[in-house]
Amino acid sequence: MAINTPGRIAYVNARLLDPASGLDAMGGLLTEGEHIVHFAPGLFADGAPVGAQVVDCDGACLAPGLVDMRTQLREPGQEHKESFKSAGRAAVAGGITSMVGLPNTNPVIDDEAAVEFVARRARLIGLAKVFTYAAATKGLEGRELAEIGLLREAGALAFTDGVKAIADAQVMRRLLSYAASHDLLVIQHPEEPSLASGVMNASEMSTRLGLRGIPREAEIILLERDMRLVAMTRGRYHAAHVSTAEGVDIIRKAKAAGLRVTCDTAPFYFALNELEVGDYRTFAKLSPPLRSEADRQAIVAGLADGTIDVVASDHCPQDQDTKRLPFNLAEFGGIGLETLLAVTLKLTQSGPLSLLQALDLVTRRPADLLGLEAGRLRTGAPADLVIFDPEAPWKVVADTMRSKSKNSPFDGHLVQGKVIRTVVDGRTVFPETAR
Q1: Using CA atoms, how far apart are residues 228 and 225, in angstroms rounded to an integer?
Q2: Which GO terms describe its molecular function (predicted)?
Q3: What one-character DSSP code corresponds to residue 353?
Q4: Which of 3, 190, 313, 334 could disulfide-pair with 409, CB 3.0 to 4.6 Å?
């Protein structure tokens, strides 16, 4: 699509929020072309600059656009479930201006051409910015390391086998050693495969429903092993979608020991628990599985004390053919792009975080972790912005969501916090009528 260069735009009557600096004040912000050129408390109180287009925020929050560091975009190979275009529409409707895709596509993103394909397609579509991870091992098979140096040069932000754990300890040791020598980030799906053949959390509930359980130890054991490997190699390690109380504690202790360890979780794991499975509800079949209420509370505590660095959507689109099946046969995963902001704000409404602290989890922190020029209000930075009303309530209706797939675990839930406008490189990309 043709992308027009925007002119000067003055955002007035805005509640400016910048987690990086702690700014929370009424004021204004000026963009010119693709960049922020000025912002300050009280700015434009006496009127906007002559010749600038004016966007009246009417007291709504103006913050850096969200950075989502864990998504499955399905293109190439499964465009019937999701595409860059449909995911882009869903992302900007949720206030996300940058997102990073996993490499488990078809073909796998394990060569330079595949990395470059992602960048090229995202530029053509012109919605949210799309970055990619590359496979840590060739074909995601967990045996032979991919061409990590070449993939990094091509633009891969980090290295992971996506939804597969790197189970072989020697392979993980070699990967972390290489990553340490080149200051690269390794992202692990922390689930011991030999313990993870079930379909929901192993508990009294799984027994009652007659479903094979995935014990919490699947996460715990792999994290414990990996922390020892990180200590051996001094590599940079990131644990994805931590879901257990013990998992949080392992990361907490590793950080205290000075290891180069970070982690994220997804809204599913701090807003829901295993009771969502209810009467075999496949939209609540996730990987890792929804855990106990005690685990959920431990995830919230980990977010509050800074052990958990980032909240990511863990967007995993599945179509009706793979979700509307008996629970044992249905695929894992839930969509989460459009609900990322609103569900994260639950941490401020009934939880221990301030608005700035909650936003930090989905803006500055993921951007800094991945080395992206995003996630903060700064003069000269790309004008990637979201305007939202943190008090506006709405009901999640999966069938109306912009993703091609409708498998939202939050379907039917009431949430609070609605995106009004999303801006990427100075251009309004949501709502569609304002482009």
Answers
A1: 5
A2: allantoinase activity; dihydroorotase activity; metal ion binding
A3: -
A4: 334
**E strand spans, 19-112:** 23-32, 35-41, 53-56, 61-64, 66-71, 96-101
DSSP 400: G
Q: Are 270 and 316 in contact (CB under 8 A)?
A: no
First to last CA, the chain: 13
CATH architecture of 66-370: Alpha-Beta Barrel (3.20)
CB-facing half-sphere around the CA of 216: CA atoms within 13 A: 15
Kind and range of the H or E run holding 19: none
| pLDDT at residue number 4 | 63
Kindly list the domain boundaries of the chain, sorted by start residue: 8-62+385-401+414-434, 66-370
pLDDT-above-70 percentage for the chain: 98
Tell me the helix, strand and coil percentages in the chain, rounded to 5: 35, 25, 45
Which helix (H) or strand (E) segment holds residue 226: the answer is helix 217-233
Between CA 338 and CA 86 the distance in angstroms is 11
pTM of this prediction?
0.97
Residue 39, strand partner residues: 29
Where b means 16+ CB within 10 Å and e means fewer, 131-165 reads bbbbbbbeebebeeebebeebbebebbbbbbbbbb
3-state secondary structure 130-156: EEECEECEHHHCCCCECCHHHHHHHCC
Phi, psi of 221 (to 5 degrees): -65, -45
CATH class of residue range 8-62+385-401+414-434 = mainly beta
Write out pLDDT tens, residues 133-156: 999 999 999 999 999 999 999 999
Catalytic residues: 314
Q: How far is CA 404 from CA 126, 163, 418, in A?
A: 18, 20, 21
pLDDT at 3: 55
Query: Is 196 in a helix, a strand, or coil?
Result: coil
- pLDDT tens per residue, range 380-398: 999 999 999 999 999 999 9
Residue 2 has pLDDT above 50, yes or no: no
> What does residue 115 show for φ and ψ, rounded to 5 degrees?
-60, -45
Token readout for 115 is 């990395």
